[in-house]
Amino acid sequence: MKLTILGGGGFRVPLVYGALLTDRAEGRVTEVVLHDLDAGRLSAVARVLAEQAAGVPDAPTVTATTDLDDALRGADFVFSAIRVGGLEGRADDERVALAEGVLGQETVGAGGIAYGLRTVPVAVDIARRVVRLAPDAWVINFTNPAGLVTEAMSRHLGDRVIGICDSPVGLGRRIARVLGGNPKEAWIDYVGLNHLGWVRGLHIAGRDELPRLLADPDLLGSFEEGKLFGVDWLQSLGAIPNEYLHYYYFNREAVRAYQQAEKTRGAFLRDQQARFYAEVRDPGAKALAAWDRTRAEREATYMAENRETAGAGERDADDLSGGYEKVALALMRAIARDERTTLILNVRNRGTLAVLDGEAVIEVPCLVDANGAHPVAVAPLPDHATGLVCSVKAVEREVLAAAESGSRTTAVKAFALHPLVDSVNVARRLVEGYTEVHPGLAYLK
Predict the structure, then answer these.
(1) pLDDT at residue 230 greater than cutoff 90
(2) In 229, 302, 353, 380, which residue has its Cα 20 to 30 A from 282's Cα atom?
(3) Is the Cβ–Cβ distance between 33 and 63 less than 8 Å?
């Protein structure tokens, strides 16, 4: 089975390959093709993968190419983890937004809109190529903003594109662990959009244990989200929000923390990964060790400004291991071998949330089999969550419309309607600022 990884020179690719090395079953991935526009990055990552595979019998073969059509042709699965504009672009997204006093995070608020506007046209081109060159392939999208990009690709690929994210998985794992349950045996009642969802129940052996957690302040305050959001607020919500909702519920504090930080997250990662790729260019460097060291620092500093604002302290060691590669492997197994499983995924709504139309991509538990991912029926969201989901989905639709039409006016509308951008004039200045620094937005007229 052939797996093509788009963004194959990206830093997180070894996580996916490491997961593939543990799969010894019939029908496993035997061929991995890495695609990236940067040949130097491809070479560096290929060295890491070669060291990972050392001593592993029948490890999947790895080839690298800068030719997108060659990479896609004949693929069974396409894993998309591209970053249009690179980390320099992410740093620019943050800088332009913070100068206007609004959030520049890569998937939330102004930064997420800017990232989406330059990513959607590229993702749509990829989707069209997949239809032409690998019509039977399944596309697993990890490219951010994951929900928005998955919806853009679904207009060409239908249900054969599925978005994944490690954030809900990590949240469910933390809740199950603090409740003394096995995360693999827990049913997580999770619903929303990507980076905008809530756990409303966690069932272990048929019993919802979330009320027990919410009723115990000590237990509730003992894990990441309890520290980040505060016990009182979680009890008020009656649910556990995805960590990215901290940008909404504590927006002023988050913006202030990012403005005062020595570096934005994008600038930190840009400089950190530049050091990694420079180090691995040395033929004598130990590529895998360099990657492990860099990854550990990356995970430990994740959302550091938010945790500092909340007084949440450092991340728990159990939360530093990643997780999206496990979701990707489980998804591929379920489809390729009909190994039925349940995963939280980004898929078309199909009536799951009545407040959104059927084509809207949402993030919910899905039953996965050889025919793809099927969203599970969920109870309606409370009003406060419904309002936020509908508002952000409306913004995503404006982003898609702007990307399709090239309308600058529609792009301004997308920024202005976002709940974390509080002024039409700010929205206009954001579009001006982003089109100045991003050549990829030159299509907006």
Answers:
(1) yes
(2) 302
(3) yes
